[in-house]
Amino acid sequence: MAIKNYTTDVPVNKTISEIHLMLADHGAKRILFDYGADSRVTAISFVIDTPAGEQGVRLPSNAERVREVLRQQRNNPKCRNRSQINDSQEQAERVAWRIVKDWLAAQLAILETEMVTVQQVFLPYFLDRQGRTLYEVYSAGALMLEGDI
Which of 15, 18, 58, 107 could form a disulfide with 97 if both were Cys (CB 3.0 to 4.6 A apart)? Predict the structure, then answer.
């Protein structure tokens, strides 16, 4: 089975605009876009209120990884929809951002129901003073959790 949104034809700028509006509607105070060397948006960063005060968050998109998954699925004889899979860079970027948008919409929905807190949803994406996400700090070995070896 192919990944979610693999057939999307929604332009990246429309999806990013939808994400922008979702964040603004849910209390984001500042929203900015990170661009790669190719002038494509690679992440959306924003500031939100938490019980501990304002917190920066960065949501990345990784179109290269999505493109690799699309390629693998397109070349997999067991994938039923493989003839419909477009593994171009442009399609990978469209798919990646649609997945981010869908994920964000789901997270904001469970926040609205108060089943979770802002910290529970966005903790891996919280930014430190150097602009690194908590996940990046952890991955670099600068943060050890109990049970880590």
Answer: 15
Task: State the distance between the two ends of the chain, measured CA to CA, in whole angstroms.
Answer: 36
Phi-psi region of 45 (alpha: psi -120 to 50; beta: other; left: phi over 0): beta
Give the helix ranges, DSSP H, for 26-88. Answer: 63-74
What gap in Å lies between CA 97 and CA 147, rounded to an integer? 34
- pLDDT tens-digit profile of 34-48? 999 999 999 999 999
Q: What is the pLDDT of residues 70-113, one digit of tens each?
A: 999 999 988 888 889 999 999 999 999 999 999 999 999 999 99
Q: Which of 130, 105, 133, 107 is nearest to 118 (CA)?
A: 107
Amino acid type, 75: N
Distance CA 14, CA 17 (A): 5
CA distance 137 to 128: 9
Q: Where are the domains of the chain?
A: 12-139
Rounded CA separation 33/84 (Å): 31
Which amino acid makes up residue 5?
A: N
